[in-house]
DNA sequence: AGTTGGCACTCGAAACGGACGAGTGCCAGG
DNA sequence: CCTGGCACTCGTCCGTTTCGAGTGCCAACT
C-alpha cells in the first residue's frame, strides 16, 4: 500500500505535468508544493512509485511523467470533479436554449463541449433503441412505393423507402397507418416487434405481402445500429497538444473518422455514471495516448445516449469531468423540455 | 505573351513540384523532361517566369516553386481533366449503390471522395431552396403543441415544433394537413409562400392564430439557410501535407469547422461547371495555401448542391478534377433513381 | 537573337562538438 | 526514516564547419 505522502507526491506530479507538459523533477516538486520534506526524500518516493509502475522517466536523467496506471490512480483516488463556475454554467444554459430542433441541440452541444473543455467533443444522437415511438407516418410515392417516416419521442426522425410487391392504395395505407399507430405509439423500440408480428394477417390476402414489406422495413429501422450517429467537433484542438509530432495526430484523426470506433469509445461507458478511459484502456491503437471522458445523458431519469470528450492522457481530469457532467445535465434538461 | 517553351517549362515545374514537394531546379528539370535545351536556357526562362510572377524561390539559391498565379495558368491553359480508370469508376458506382437513404448517400459520398482524392472532402446536402415539396405532415404532440414534418423530393426530412396560441383539435389538424398538401405538394420552395398566404383566412376565427403559427413555422423552414448542411470527411489527409508545420494545419482545421466558411467555399462555385479556387483566391486566411475544387451535382439536369475537395495548392489538379467530376456524376445518377 | 558552357557566389541543411544544467542514484550522518 | 552532499548521466542549446544544389552573369558559339 502507498503511504499518504507518496500519494501526495503522485498527485503533485500529475498536477505539475498537466500544467507544464514537461517531465517534473524532485527539486521543482518541493518548490511548488508544500510537501514538508526535502528533494532527496521525494526522490526516494519517486523511485518507489516508478518501481510500482505509476510513473516513468522518458530518458535517464530526466524528470518523471505519470503512466496510464498513475493517471488511473489519480482519477480513482486523488481527483475530485471540479464544478464549473456560475458564469460558465449560465453561459452553457444560454447557449443551449437557443436550439430550434434536435439537430441543432446536438450541433450546439458538440460545439459547446469542445469550447469549454478545449478538446475534441463527441455527442451521440439519442439512441433509437432506448427511445419510444411517437408516430409512424406512411406516404404514397408511387403506386407500389411507400415512404415510411418514424418519429421518436426524442424528436428524431427516420425515413425509409419501401418497395412493395403490389400496388398500395390510399385506403390500405390509411388503414395500416391507423392500426400501426394505435398499436405501437408510446412503446419502446424493443417492445414493438411482438406487437406487430401478426398485423399482416388481419389484412386482405392480396395486401399482405405489401403490409409485410412495410413492417419489415419498420422493424429494420428499429434495430438499425448504423444510425447511432455520433457527431464530432473541436478537431482543431488536437493541434494544441502533439505540437512536436504531426505524426501522432494522424492516427487520432483517422480513428475519429470511424463511426464504429467512436461508438465503442462512448458505448462501453456505463449507463449513468461517468467513465474515464485512459490511454491503453482504449482498445484502439492510435488512441493509446488519449483519454476519453464520457457520460450518459437523457431527457428523463434514464440515459438515452452518451457524450464526452477525447483528449491527451495528460489532461486536466477534474476540470474536464466537471465540464462534461455539467453539459450532459443541461442537455438533458433541454431535451426534457421539448 | 509566353512562348511555347516557357509554358512547357512552367508545366514541368508544376508537375515536378507536385510530385516531389520540393523546389525544383534547372538541372533536375532538364534531366526529367525532354525539353531539348540546356539547363542554362531553362534558367533564363525561369528568371522570366519569375519576373512575371508565375514562380518564386523560397530563398536565394534554392529551386523554384509555382505561385498561385502559376497554378492558375496551369489549371486554365496547361492541364486537362484526367479521367478515372474503369476500375475506379466501377468501384465508385458499387460503393454508392449500397446506400439506403439520403443520409447514407451523403455519408458514403464524402468517404468515397476523401478516399479517391486522398484529400479533405466536402459534400453539401441537396439544397432546400432548389427542392420541391413532397409532403407535409402535422402531428399533435400536446393540446397546443404540433410537430411539423416536411419531406422534400430529394428525400430530405425537416421537422419543427410549433407552439400554438390555442388548443388544436385533430379535426382542425387533418383539415389543415389536407388543404396544405393539396396546395403545395410538388411545388418548388420559392413558389410556396404566395400559395399559402391566405390559407388562414378560410378557417374559423378561433383557429386562425394557430393556423398562422403553423404556416409561419413552415415558411421559416423553407427559407432556413443554416440547414444547408455540409458534411466533411478525410480530415486525416491533412496530415499528409504540412508535415513540417503542425502550425499550418491548425487554421485549416478551424476553418473547416465553420459551416459558414464551408458554405462559402462551395457556394461561390458556378452552377454546373467545375470551379477551382487557388490559394489566396479563397477569401479566408488560413486557407491561403489550400485550393478548392468544387462542382455541382443533381438528380436531373440541374444542380441541387455542390461537392468538392480541399487540398494544398500543390495538388494534382488533373487527377483531382477528374475524381471530383466522376463522383458528382455518379451521385447524381443515384439520386435520380431514388 | 537565342542558346550554351563555365564560373564565382549564395545560403540553407546537415554534421560536429563542447558547455550547460536539470535530474538522478547512492551513501553516510543526523 | 529523513536529509545534505556528491559524482555521474544525458538531453538540450548554440556556435562552427562543411557540403552541395542552385543561381546569375558573361563570354562564346550558331
UniProtKB/TrEMBL annotation, chains A, B:
Top-level taxon: Bacteria
InterPro entries: GAF-like_dom_sf, HrcA, HrcA_C, WH-like_DNA-bd_sf, WH_DNA-bd_sf, WHTH_transcript_rep_HrcA_IDD
Residue ranges of every copy of the Heat-inducible transcription repressor HrcA C-terminal domain listed in the record: 103-321
Signal peptide residue numbers: none
Keyword Transcription regulation: yes
Protein task: Negative regulator of class I heat shock genes (grpE-dnaK-dnaJ and groELS operons). Prevents heat-shock induction of these operons.
Protein name, UniProt field: Heat-inducible transcription repressor HrcA
Species, as recorded: Actinacidiphila guanduensis
Amino acid at each position: 500500500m502507498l503511504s499518504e505522502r507518496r500519494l501526495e507526491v503522485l498527485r503533485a506530479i500529475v498536477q505539475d505535468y498537466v500544467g507544464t507538459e514537461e517531465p517534473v523533477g524532485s527539486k521543482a516538486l518541493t518548490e511548488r508544493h508544500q510537501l514538508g520534506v526535502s528533494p532527496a526524500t521525494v526522490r526516494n518516493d519517486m523511485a518507489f512509485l516508478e518501481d510500482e509502475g505509476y510513473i516513468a522517466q522518458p530518458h535517464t536523467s530526466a524528470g518523471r511523467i505519470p503512466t496510464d496506471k498513475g493517471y488511473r490512480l489519480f482519477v480513482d483516488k486523488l481527483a475530485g470533479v471540479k464544478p464549473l463556475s456560475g458564469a460558465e454554467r449560465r453561459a452553457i444554459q444560454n447557449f443551449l436554449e437557443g436550439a430550434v430542433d434536435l439537430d441543432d441541440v446536438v450541433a450546439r452541444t458538440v460545439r459547446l463541449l469542445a469550447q469549454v473543455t478545449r478538446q475534441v467533443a463527441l455527442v451521440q444522437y439519442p439512441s433509437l433503441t432506448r427511445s419510444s415511438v411517437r408516430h409512424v407516418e406512411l406516404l404514397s410515392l408511387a403506386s407500389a412505393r411507400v415512404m415510411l417516416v418514424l418519429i421518436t419521442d426524442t424528436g428524431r426522425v427516420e425515413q425509409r423507402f419501401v418497395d412493395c410487391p403490389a400496388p398500395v392504395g390510399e385506403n390500405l395505407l390509411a388503414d395500416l397507418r391507423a392500426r400501426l399507430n394505435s398499436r405501437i405509439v408510446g412503446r419502446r423500440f424493443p417492445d414493438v416487434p411482438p406487437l406487430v408480428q401478426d398485423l399482416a394477417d388481419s389484412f386482405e390476402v392480396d395486401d399482405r405481402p405489401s403490409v409485410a414489406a412495410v413492417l419489415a422495413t419498420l422493424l429494420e429501422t428499429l434495430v438499425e445500429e448504423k444510425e447511432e450517429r455520433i457527431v464530432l467537433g473541436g478537431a482543431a484542438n488536437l493541434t494544441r497538444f502533439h505540437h512536436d509530432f504531426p505524426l501522432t495526430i494522424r492516427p487520432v484523426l483517422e480513428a475519429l473518422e470511424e463511426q464504429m470506433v467512436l461508438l465503442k469509445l462512448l458505448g462501453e461507458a456505463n449507463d449513468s455514471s461517468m467513465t474515464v478511459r485512459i490511454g491503453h484502456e482504449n482498445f484502439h491503437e492510435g488512441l493509446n495516448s488519449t483519454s476519453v471522458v464520457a457520460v450518459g445523458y437523457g431527457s428523463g431519469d434514464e440515459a438515452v445516449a452518451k457524450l464526452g470528450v477525447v483528449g491527451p492522457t495528460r489532461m486536466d481530469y477534474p476540470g474536464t469531468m466537471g465540464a462534461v457532467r455539467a453539459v450532459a445535465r443541461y442537455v438533458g434538461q433541454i431535451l426534457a423540455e421539448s
